[in-house]
Write a structure and sequence with these properties.
The chain is an alpha/beta fold. The chain is 36% helix and 16% strand. The chain is built from 13 helices and 15 strands. A five-stranded parallel β-sheet has the order 10-9-11-12-15, sandwiched between helices. β1 and β2 form a beta hairpin. The protein is globular. The protein binds adenosine-5'-diphosphate. The site of adenosine-5'-diphosphate has 17 residues, from loops. The site of adenosine-5'-diphosphate (ADP) has 17 residues, from loops.
């Protein structure tokens, strides 16, 4: 059948070829394909979908028991079982194309959902509920994008719109309803909320296992102590970009401009983390700069950065004289300004044209981190749907259970 679609780029190593062929035969037998089809195949890396049959998977390696021993084989998967793709697919020169990365992520999510639903027709699709309070134009656009992207990735999504005259109790009432609805996997409350409503209170009213924005104290706390948690989408998007571009973070100087709780701070926490030898460990030397960092100090820090990440919302804060040759520059800032002809346009924190010629990799604004961020919300929603994180495995929960 369309078997060839499952197989990818050629692999030269003869030893791996032999293993690949054994592996292929095994997989073909599992799927009841004939060996004749396999024998016509060239050396290959095998697609991640076929590796669902393996009993153990690691970054770039899968292990299969063939009956005559355990075979390890090189694969095109990363540690999350996603396709490990070539960075060149998402680059225009040294410019990172966030839309292409977002499409890759969406397609991976869609494939996984389609397969889950196909294997059990009674299975519903993951569902995301978005609460939008008021009519802030930027929020309306963000929410619309999230809903569109969710549909494109094979999820269902609903937007609950509330007027900005709403009270905190009204929002809590809706959240109570969504928390207890078993057909809702992920809940997002679009920020900012109108004046007089406590964002902290509202974020903490979302059940941690549905908090796909990762804004609740429980998720933040778990993340800080290296427990599995939902990580906010923007930091997650930045990490995904670094991962897909195979940017080495270990031992590097990473400077983050901006210390907001949902963006700058979690990025730094992740980049410095050791995660007990986990493959997702950042192990970088990190520095946070913020509004009280004097300009000359800011420049001294950014000039040392191998990885420079900025999330301040200040256009042209980062100019080429502040950037080290060959640095990786990730621009999260997004500001609407008027150009010299009076037309509105979106710009980041980085003087893009100037810095581009010095950086080894750079994200543009728009079209860089933004689209990836939206895709990461869906990745979290899929995790919530699959119940990948057990929030109730603390010592306190265990003691309570054993007492009852
Ligand atoms: P967001 O939550 O989207 O990151 P905020 O407006 O909350 O945006 O945060 C802006 C961040 O930018 C703050 O952490 C602030 O300290 C930081 N910042 C503001 N001015 C500077 C500056 N000159 N240099 C570095 N960081 C700055």
């Amino acid at each position: 059948m369309a078997l060839r679609r499952h197989f990818h780029s050629l692999h030269q190593n003869r030893c791996v070829l032999a293993l690949a062929m054994r592996m292929t035969q095994y997989l073909l037998q599992q799927r009841k394909y004939t060996i004749d089809q396999a024998s016509t195949m060239k050396p290959m890396l095998i697609d991640s979908k076929l590796f669902r049959h393996c009993f153990r998977k690691e970054q770039g390696r899968a292990f299969v028991n063939t009956g005559s021993g355990t075979w390890a084989i090189k694969t095109n998967m990363d540690s999350n079982n996603n396709m490990d793709r070539s960075p060149s697919e998402v680059l225009d020169g040294n410019v990172i194309n966030g839309k292409v990365i977002a499409d890759q992520i969406k397609n991976e999510i869609k494939d996984e959902i389609d397969e889950l639903v196909k294997s059990d027709p009674k299975q519903r699709r993951p569902h995301l509920s978005v609460v939008l309070v008021g009519s802030d134009p930027a929020s309306v656009i963000y929410v619309r994008n999230k809903a569109r992207t969710a549909a494109a990735a094979g999820m269902t999504c609903d937007i609950l719109r509330m007027p900005d005259t709403v009270t905190q109790e009204d929002i809590l009432g809706e959240l109570k309803h969504l928390n207890s609805d078993k057909t809702v996997d992920g809940i997002l409350v679009q920020l900012p909320l109108p004046k007089g409503i406590s964002e902290r209170f509202i974020c903490d009213a979302v059940l941690p296992e549905k908090d796909v924005d990762g804004f609740s104290v429980l998720n933040i706390g778990r993340f800080c102590v290296d427990e599995q948690a939902f990580i906010p989408a923007t930091p997650l998007g930045v990490l995904e970009i670094l991962k897909r571009l195979r940017v080495e973070t270990q031992g590097k100087n990473a400077v983050v401009c901006g210390r907001s709780k949902n963006v700058g701070l979690p990025i730094v926490l992740h980049l410095q983390a050791s995660r007990n030898g986990d493959l997702s460990a950042g192990n970088a030397t990190t520095t946070i700069c913020h509004r009280h960092t004097p300009p000359d100090q800011l420049k001294a820090y950014t000039q040392k950065a191998d990885i420079l990440i900025t999330a301040t919302g200040i256009p042209r804060l980062i100019t080429s004289d502040m950037v080290k040759d060959g640095a990786v520059v990730i621009d999260i800032g997004i500001t609407r300004i008027r150009d010299s002809k009076g037309k509105y346009k979106l710009v980041g924190d980085v003087d893009f044209e100037g810095v581009k010629s010095k950086a080894s990799l750079i994200t543009p604004v728009p079209g860089g981190v933004g689209p990836v961020t939206v895709a990461m919300v869906l990745k979290n929603t899929l995790m919530a749907y699959k119940k990948e994180i057990d929030f109730y495995q603390t010592a306190a929960h265990r003691m309570t259970r054993s007492n009852s």
